[in-house]
Amino acid sequence: MKLLRYGPTGQEKPGLLDAEGRIRDLSGEVNDIAGNVLTPEGLARLATVDPATLPPIDGDPRIGACVGRVGKFICIGLNYADHAAETGAEIPKEPIVFNKWTSAICGPDDDIEIPRGSVKTDWEVELGIVIGKGGRYIEEADALSHVAGYCVINDVSEREWQIERGGTWDKGKGCDTFGPIGPWLVTPDEIADVGNLKMWLDVDGHRYQNGSTATMIFGVAHIISYLSRFLSLQPGDVISTGTPPGVGLGQKPPVYLKGGEVMRLGIEGLGEQTQKVIRA
After folding, report:
1. Burial track 146-160 (b if 16+ CB lie within 10 A, e otherwise)
2. Which of 38-52, 119-133, 159-173, 229-243 has the lowest mean pLDDT?
3. Which of 257, 46, 219, 195 is nearest to 143 (CA)?
4. What residues does 125 pair with on adjacent strands?
5. pTM here?
6. Is 75 within 8 Å of 198 (Cβ atoms)?
7. Are 69 and 35 in contact, with CB atoms under 8 Å apart?
8. pLDDT (tens digit per residue) in 236-248
9. Considering only CA atoms, which of 127, 132, 135 is closest in space to residue 239?
10. What is the pLDDT of residue 178?
């Protein structure tokens, strides 16, 4: 299944993308793509619904973040060997963990806002994991059974605030609009090999990122198991798993967003995002 949320900001309704690429309204079945709807039992019930019986949505509605009521937005840094190399960083011995605030979450095609005072706003196409079955101390061999689905995330980052201003990375990662999620939450049965998906990002038609999840240092199962040692994972938690090379910071000289650009990004089988960059 490809699950989604559509409608004005703050008023999103649950939906499903049918085989013809048409949005179908799920409001008669669930109140949101969130919480218990994402558990194995909740998804199994949705899988029994015939899309043809759901009302079709006409027009071109705004697509919201594909998950609602996100409890935690956890990110993994420097998780691609080729991205670590472009930044001159050592390969991490354990996953680098930081957070994006849930107030950063927006729709996949919403505008990205450069914050006041920012001079180094950057991009990162990333594979997102949405947790379906919660737990602590999850064994790596069982970790994939905790996944509700996968999605595209743009881990927008302010590099000066992340790297040069002291403290943790978080203040350069969690600004409003820095977390577009979607367009779809794609259930694992539709993804043959999550460890070998093409991913890309363009700015104004120039391809900066052209990578694959195959170069991830820590895979999906390891990340879930690792995080569950330190915190409980719950249905609807979102994990962003790192980016391949080609970020603005890694260009020679570096290239940062100024306002007015259009970013397009996507991951094989998970859909695409398109964002206009504006200034606060």
Report:
1. bbbbbbbbbbbbbbe
2. 159-173
3. 219
4. 154
5. 0.96
6. no
7. yes
8. 999 999 999 999 9
9. 127
10. 98
